[in-house]
Amino acid sequence: MIISNMEIAAIFDQLADLLEIKGENPFKVIAYRNAVRTIENMGTDLSKMIKDGVDLPEIPTIGESIAKKIKEIVTTGKLSKLEDLKRSFPPHLLDLLNIKGIGPKRTKILYENLQINSLEELKKAALAHKIRDLEGFDEKLEQMILEGTKLVKKEGKRFLYSIAEPHANDITAYIKKSKEVSSAIIAGSFRRRKDTVGDLDLLVTSDDPALAIDHFIQYPDIKEVISRGITKSTVILNNDLQVDLRCVPDESYGATLHYFTGSKSHNVTIRKMAIEMGLKVNEYGIFKGKEKIAGVTEEEMYKTVGLSYIEPELRENRGELEAAAHRKLPDLVNIEDIKGDLHTHTTYSDGQNSIMEMAEAAKKLGYEYIAITDHSKLLAIYNGMDEKRLRIQLEEIDKINEQLDGITLLKSIEVDILEDGSLALNNDILKELDLVVGGLHEKLALSQDKQTTRILKAMDNPYFNILAHPTGRLIGERKACDIDMELLFKEVKARGCFLEINAQPKRLDLNDIHAKYAKEAGVKFAISTDAHNIATLDYMRYGIFQARRGWIEKKDAINTLSLDKLKKTLSRT
To answer: Which pTM value belongs to this model?
Structure first.
């Protein structure tokens, strides 16, 4: 059974939510919340750690009780304590938590006072203006809740890319074991590296589709077989992720892969281009009359309609077809281009590894440098540092740099941007750093004007370099801050600052659309992991995926530069 860290964390998060709604001991709730954060930031699969016999209670915030529950989840795919607790509540009560502005406390109030236990009942209560008079609610929040119920229904069920990834890799490896299968690949939004995916489109080539499908439906992680045809089959995995298998002959592989990779808008435009050339494009190939003239590879599909090959991440009909026609496609950044990570945490704040451990892990990745960016003092919950503790850290970094060979530690901080735009640490200490990463961590619901002004004022500080996770979004959990992005891009460029593309799977912030617009405005980026341990340094690949979707090239990312060139680039004087 495959179960990712994110899925394990989601189970504990749900458990904490229900316990909080129930009014359970808050310390127990906090323990589960802390475990969720630890698990989300681990990077190494807990299922693999259990298989390898790792003693889980040695992991910070993971005690004996939680370790036992993790083993149960990895073994069975669920947690009996959570399942028992669910039975004491209406089945759709937790759906309320998908609405912005509603957490466990407000869910409890809605449930106990208005007997609301589903999104439909929540919507009806909001329309009837029954919510605004409850304690902790008002007219504005009621309207926001109403809008939220509509948004949830529109978006439907989607999975973080990082949650879908291990399932995609495992089922692809499984299907390739069939002797009837000559090749297999996941297409769709997963291949385009979107930050969330609705399902998996598994494309295989086979001379005997029936036997390939027989093998497919024996995959051990299947909960339900929805359909089983001659050349295609649909199943639901144990985590409710849908997988659609399609078998095609080798001569149609390129055409089918192109068709099912999408996007729909990209494909429709190509079909229109083909029609103007007297050609027909479908999932089987390109035809001139009844003659099939292309379809074996994607490259020949594009070449036949006069285009350069377009990388899957770009296929969103956002100008890539015009660029391909004029041979002006971007040379997208690759993970091999990265020389260092400019956003990492250690045990000085809320990280799980020491400075030396992070440095050694970064060196193994072939990095030339790594910035240590622990939290500033505002975030007490994350053990944020004041000036005194930061100076102690700087002294340690100096000592470690004397010992290191082949990699350099950069002195930095993830300093909080306060509501008035000032920074949480004074310039006397900031000027001693190699770079300053600033971030929003509170007051995320300010108006567009106030939020934008706040960020611009922070960037007026001459020591400010990189705006971390610029919009503050958490995918599926928290909307982006309301910021005048066009003005932000203009002023970032004017001040000689940079925007981060945060590689944390729940953030991926900037998103791809904003990254492309920022690039067009002349902005450059830091693709950083926000790693909280050595394992999550590997999150860099998610940042690269996001950057590629935003048309980012090697020349656009400052952490593709050598150390000497990086230091010159960071200087604002």
So the answer is: 0.82
